[in-house]
Amino acid sequence: MTYCVGLLLNEGMVLLSDTRTNAGLDNIATYRKMFTFEVPGERVIVIMTAGSLSVTQTTIARLRDMNDSPDADPTTCILRAPTMLAVAEIVGSTLAAVRGEIQEKLSAMGQGASASMIVAGQRKGGGMRMFLIYPEGNFIEATEDTPFLQIGEHKYGKPILDRVVKPSTSLLDAQKAVLLSMDSTLRSNLSVGMPLDLAVIDKDALKVTAARRIEAGDPDFRAMSEAWSTALRDGFQKIEL
Amino acid sequence: MTYCVGLLLNEGMVLLSDTRTNAGLDNIATYRKMFTFEVPGERVIVIMTAGSLSVTQTTIARLRDMNDSPDADPTTCILRAPTMLAVAEIVGSTLAAVRGEIQEKLSAMGQGASASMIVAGQRKGGGMRMFLIYPEGNFIEATEDTPFLQIGEHKYGKPILDRVVKPSTSLLDAQKAVLLSMDSTLRSNLSVGMPLDLAVIDKDALKVTAARRIEAGDPDFRAMSEAWSTALRDGFQKIEL
C-alpha cells in the first residue's frame, strides 16, 4: 500500500509520501513515490503516486519522455503546458492511457491494476494548485474548505488533518501535521513504511524549497512521534467523562 | 456503515456501537446494533452487529427464538450453552447459516450480503471472553496483547485505541477511549451516526453494570469531544519539529 498527503496552504505547499511497495506481504521493496519536475523560476511540479507500481512507473516515465522530446506538442508536455490545469489534464490522460493498456494485459488473468496521483505545482504568473488524479484520468482539486488531498491508506491519518489543517496553517505546522498523520498510518498499517520523502514548496518560489528524506530511525522523527504519543496520553488523562 | 468497538480489560468489558443504517446515502435510518442476553447472576452476553441489516436482524431473532424455546438443545441456545466458547460457536453458525440463505436469494441479482459481530460475555464460573465473529462463522478472540475488537469502519478510531488501551486500563478510562475513538469516526465517516449505545460489564457482575444511550447533542459527549479537540491542538502546538 501507500500513503501520500499534500497540503495547499496560503504560504505554500507541503507534500509527504512513504516508499513501501509490496507484491504480497512476503515481497516488500522501497520505491520513491514522489517525483519532481522543475524549471526553477518558471515552474515547479511535484507528483506523488499510489497504486500498481507498473502503472505509476510507466506513467512517470512517459511524462519524462514527453518533456525530453524537444519538439513535443505543449499539450502533451507538463513542463511546457500553459497552466496547472493543463498539467493535471496531461497527467490524467497519461495515467488513464497507461492504466488501460496494463489493465488489458492483466484482464486475461482476471487481475486488475490501478493507480492514483497527487499533482501539486505552480507556474510563473499562476497560483499554486493541487489535484488528485483518479485512475480514470478525471481529477479533483484542493480548495480552501478542504486544503489537503490524500491517496492510498488515508483513513488512519485523516483525523489529525481534519483537526489542525487550515489554509492559514504555517509551513512549519504543516510539516508537523503531515508527519504526525504519517506516524499514525505507519503504526496501524504495515504496508506503509519508512523512509519518507518530504517536500516543501514556498509560494511563488517556483522550485522545491526544501526536500528531505527521512530514514527509518531518524532521531528527529522518532522524538516527534514520541512527543505526540505523550501529548495524546496526557491530553487523554486530563479529559473528564 | 457501522462502527462497534469492544474492550476486554482486567476490570471488565466496555462496549460501544453507533446506530446508523443506510441503504444508499439517501436512505438513512436508526437501528440498535447492541443486543443484551442476560440471566442476571448466571450469565451476561452482549452482541454487537455490523453489516447487512437483513442478515443481522434475522440472526439476532433466531438466537432469541432458540432461547425462548424451553426444550431447545443447549448446543443451540446461547443462554444455556456450557461455555462462552460454545456461545461464540452458536452465534457463528447461526450467522453463517442466515448469511448463506440470504446470499442465495441475492445472488440472482448479482448482489451480496454479509455481516460480522462482536460477542462479549461471561458465565458463572468462567472468565470474561470477547469474540469477533466473521461472516463465515469462524471467529477470533480478544487477548492481553490486543485487548480490543472492532467491526465496521474501524480505521479512523484505531490510532487512539492503539495508544491508550491496555488490559490494565480502568473502566472509566476505557469508556473515554471508546467514546473518543467513536468521535474520530463520526467526524470522518457520515455513514456512522448518533445516537450511540454504551455498555459496561464489570468483571464477575454477570450482568450489564451500566448501559447508556447517548443522543445527538448530548452535552457530556459534546464537552468531551471539544476537550479532546482542544487537547489535540494544544499538544500539537507544543511539539517541536
UniProtKB/TrEMBL annotation, chains A, B:
The keyword Cell inner membrane does not apply. InterPro entries: Ntn_hydrolases_N, UCP009120_prtse. It comes from the Bacteria. GO terms for cellular component: proteasome complex. GO terms for biological process: proteolysis. One of its GO terms (molecular function) is peptidase activity. Keywords: Hydrolase, Protease, Proteasome. The keyword Hydrolase applies. Gene3D superfamilies: Glutamine Phosphoribosylpyrophosphate, subunit 1, domain 1 (3.60.20.10). This is Putative proteasome-type protease. The lineage of its organism: Bacteria, Pseudomonadati, Pseudomonadota, Alphaproteobacteria, Rhodobacterales.
